[in-house]
């Protein structure tokens, strides 16, 4: 429910509807505007974007299906009208849409619980349960410690192999897709990864578990990656971390140094 947040930002329904009209008029005809340009539209109409007001208006317009992300302009994300960007979107009845959302969630993020799906989707528990029940016959379930985990029928445990490491960005779905993150992040380290204010740091994942945080600095001669592991990696784990950093440098097309 966004009503309390809207009130805390001193925004009312009339202001939201005005923002919706402004965005429609500015974007119609397949136009694309950056966030800064969208904020400028609001400010010019005497709608202040200060104190998260601008972010909220963008979020609610996207949540209600008016706008969405468009292509990148240089390094800036643009916004477009959803109906123009995806003109042939499939229309579904509510029950069908709930089932489709549940199917996409559990087939891509399972094993996961009903509570995880509620967290990720923002649905009410009853709606989330209805979506899950509609597709339960297509999934496999496993009960662990009084929790039922749902997953695709072909999802099996991975065999034990040599260490594998990944450098994931902040706010990655590997953590944010679940309400209960204890399977991949020890509670004692959660404050390091999520220090507060809604922030999630970039994470080192080693053998499926969060093993620390990392940050990058792009310089003229390449990219420097600083690792902040929770413990001391062994020789094999160090090789895996170096490979993950090298893969990232290759993705950027830049030489990489690791510290």
Strand content: 15-25%
Low-confidence stretches: none
Order of helices and strands: HHEHHEEHHHHEEEHHEEEHE
Taking all Cα atoms into account, the compactness measure Rg is: 22 Å
The tally of structural domains comes to 3
Report the oligomer.
Answer: single chain
| Largest sheet entry | 5 strands, mixed
Number of strands: 10
Largest sheet, order of strands side by side? 6-7-8-9-10
Computed structural class: alpha+beta
Give the helix level as a range of percent. 40-55%
Name a few traits of the molecule.
259 residues; alpha+beta; Arc Repressor Mutant, subunit A; five-stranded mixed beta sheet; three-stranded antiparallel beta sheet; 11 helices
Q: What is the element layout, followed by pairings?
A:
Layout: H1 3-8, H2 13-27, E1 33-34, H3 35-44, H4 53-63, E2 67-73, E3 76-81, H5 82-85, H6 94-109, H7 114-121, H8 125-135, E4 140-144, E5 147-151, E6 165-168, H9 173-176, H10 190-193, E7 203-206, E8 209-219, E9 222-229, H11 235-252, E10 256-258
Parallel strand pairs: 9-10
Antiparallel strand pairs: 1-3, 2-3, 4-5, 6-7, 7-8, 8-9
Helix pairs in contact: 6-8, 7-8
Describe the protein.
This protein is of the alpha+beta class and 259 residues long. The protein has three domains: 3-85, Winged helix-like DNA-binding domain superfamily/Winged helix DNA-binding domain (Arc Repressor Mutant, subunit A, Orthogonal Bundle), CATH 1.10.10.10; 94-151, Arc Repressor Mutant, subunit A, CATH 1.10.10; 165-258, no CATH class. It is 41% helix and 21% strand. The protein has a five-stranded mixed sheet, with helices on one face. The protein has a three-stranded antiparallel sheet with strand order 1-3-2. A hairpin with a 2-residue loop joins strand 7 and strand 8 (209-219). Helix 6 crosses helix 8 (125-135) and helix 7 packs across helix 8. The longest helix is centred in the last third of the chain and has 18 residues, at 235-252. The model has no long low-confidence stretch (mean pLDDT 91).
